[in-house]
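Worked Example 4.2. Consider the chain below.
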Amino acid sequence: MNALAQTADTSPRQPANVLPGVVVEAAKPSKPRRTTRQNAARAARQAPAQAVRPAQDQQVTARAPEGTNSDSLKPMGGKLPRPGIPHPAAQSITVVDRAQIEATSPTGMLDVLASVPGVSIARSGGIGGQIYLRGFSSNSFRSPMFIDGDRFRGRNTLQLNYLAPEEVERVEVIRGPGSVIYGSEALTGLVNIVTRSYTGDTSGPFRFTGGGWSAGYGSAANSASTYDWVKGAGQGFDFIGGFAGRWGGDYQTSLGTVPNSDYQSVGGNIKLGYTPDIGQRIELSLRSYSEVDGRAGGVGGAPGAPYLQVRQDPNQVHSARIAYTGELDGLVKHVESSFYVNYFDTKLSTINNTINAAGIATRTVKSTSHVIGPLMIGGRSQAEIPWLSPWGATKTTFGLDGFREARPGSELTSETITRNATTGAVTSDVVSPYTKQGPDTTQSNIGAFVLHEWKPIQALTLSAGGRFDWFNTTTDTSPLSSAIPASVKAAYSSNTNVDQTAPTGSVGFVYAILPNVDLLGNVATSFREPTNSELYAVTATQLPNPDLKPESGVTYEGGARFHTANAELKVTAFDTHYENFLQTVAVTFNGVGGYTQSQNVGKAAVTGVELEARWQVTPTVNIFTNVAQLRGTNTVTDTPLPFLAPYRGRVGIQYADPNGAYSIFGVVDWAASKTRIDPAQEFQTAGYAIPKLYATLQLGQLVSPQLGDTKLILGLENIFNTAYVDASTFVNRSYPRSLTNPLVETGRNVSVKLQHTF
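Applying the procedure from the previous section yields the following C-alpha cells:
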C-alpha cells in the first residue's frame, strides 16, 4: 500500500423521493538491491514526494509505514505507527501494529479494534460483533472494512468474524470521512486490515525460508487457538501461507455464563508473489474461512436467552485477489492495481420463543435462513506523479475503483410450534419448506478519484481531493409474496433499474508552526449509497423506494501534533453534519394506511475530540494513552443518537528488557457512565475501569538457546472480574435488562500462548 503524505497523519418533511400515492404519516515484501538506474528513478520519484511532507518526518519512505514495530519484545518507541493506506494529508488515522497484536493474544478483531481512539465495540458473542466509529455502527454500512486496500463488502454484520488476529500484520483505522478516496459508506471512517506478507530475499534457488506455529488457551471461555504458517522463496517467487483455528465455549462473567456465546472457526490463507523485475511485483492471495458461532446478544441476537437464540452454522467466505505493484521511470512513478472476488455463504438458524408470565413458551418459531452470496467482484488502480516546479513540490495520486455485488434472494424454512398456555402441551406444529424469500438484486459502482498535495513552502503542506461515483442498482421482479397488493407490485416493477451519482471532495493542510508542533485542518464530504435491500425492500406492509438519495455528510476537523524524538501526542477535534439519513417511516399508499417505507428524512450532528500519545520515558519504559469524547444528536427529533460511548480511553505502561528477554505491560481500559440516552432504544450504562496485564517472555534467552525464537505470551484480563457493558452494545427495549440484554462483557480471563518462529 502506498502512503500518501503519511507523515502528516496526525493521524418531518414530506420527501420527494416516494412512490406515487405515498403520504408520510409519521476500510511489502523487501525487494532485491536496485541497479544504479533504478535507484536513480526511485530517487527522482521520492524526492518531490518527500518534499511535500513536513520536515520532521523525512525518515518516512514512500512505500512502507514508519514507526511500525513487529516485535513485541522491543520498546514501543515514542512515535505512533504510520499507515500505508492512501489518505489526505491531515486525515486522522490510528495504526495497531503487529507487535501490539502479538503482545495481547486477542481472541478476535473486536479486541484489536477496541484499543483505537474513537472506536467502541458492540459485541454479539465470543468473537462476533461490530464496531462503532465516530458514532455509527459498521452494521449500518457507514464504516466499511477493507482487506489489503480492497473493499470487503457483503457481510457487514459478520465481517470481523472472518479474520484471525495471527494473520494480520497491522490494522489501519481512518477516523473521519474517507469517501474522497474510498467511495460509498466511508461516512465516519473505515478499517483497513493488512494481512501478513512475505519478507526476505527472493533471489537464489527456491527454498523454505521460515515459518512458525502457536498454540493458545483462554480461561474465560475454555478457548483454544492455533496458527501455523510457513514461507519460502527463490527464482523471483515467494509465498507465505497459514492455517488458523479458534475454538471457544460460552464465556464466563462475574454474573454467570453467557449462553450461546461459543464459537469455532477454521480457515487458511496463502500469498504467492513473483518479482519479474526489480521494482515490479505480482501477488496472488487466496483465503477461505468457515465458522460456527452464536449471537448471545447484540445486533441480531438481543434480547438473547431464553427468548431468542441465533446461530451462524456455517458462516463461510472464499476470497481471491491478484495485485500488481510497480516502480516506473516515466512521468508516473508508481502504480498499484488489484482485482478481487469474494463469495459469502451463511446459514442463519433462529429459535424465537414467546414466553408467558408462567414461564411457558406458548409459541416457538424455528427458522433457518440460507443467505446465499453475495458474489463480490471488484478492483482498484491508482498511480502517483511527483512534480517539481517553481511554486513548490507536489504529488498527484489518481485512480479508479469499482465493484459489482450480485445478491441472490435468500431461502427460508421454518417450523412454528404452539403450546397450551397452562400445561405447555403442544397444540400445533406447522413446518414450511425452503422457499425463496425475495428477488435477485445487483449493485454496481465505478468511482474516479484524484488527490493532490502541494508544498509551497517548507513548513506548509496543502492537500485537495475529489471523487465522482456512479452507481447502478437492479432487481428482478419475482418472487414477491402473494400478500403484496397488485398496486404495490406494479409500482415496484416499474422501478427495477436505478442509476445514481455522487461527488465528494476534501481540502486540508498541515502547518509546522514550530519544529516540534504541527497544526492540522481538514474539511471533507462523504456519502453512502442506499443498498439493494433499502431501495427494493418490499413486503405486504413495506414499500420499496427506488428514488432514495445517497446519505451525505460534511466534517470539519482541526488538531495539533506535538512530537520529539521520544514522544508524540495527537489531538483532533471534529464536527460532522449528516443529511438524507435513511429512516423507516409510516406511510399511506393510494389512500391506504399501514405501510412503512425507507425515506431520506434523517439528520444528525456528531462532535468529538480524540487524543492519542506515546512517550518513551527511558530506553526501557514507555507510557501510552488515548482518550475519545463523543456526542451525537438526531437533529430532527432533538434526541441523542443511540449507542454512543460519551467518554472512553486507555492508559498503559510498558517495560521492555534491554536484552530483549521479556516485555511487560499493563493497561487500563475505561469508560464513563452513559446517562444521555434515547430511552426508546437503549439503557443507561455504568462507567468502568478494566485493568489488564500482559507479559512476553523470550524462552530462547530465559530458558535455553536451543529453544530459538520461542515466546511465552501471558495475559490476565479484567483482573477484578468486573461485570460491565459497553455503551455501544445493542439492546432490545421490548424486553427487560438481563445478562444478554445488553450483553455483558467477558469476565476475568487468563491467557497463555506458546509461539515458535523458525
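The chain is about 5% helix and 55% strand. Residues 1-64 have pLDDT under 50 and may be disordered. Compare this with Example 4.1 before moving on.
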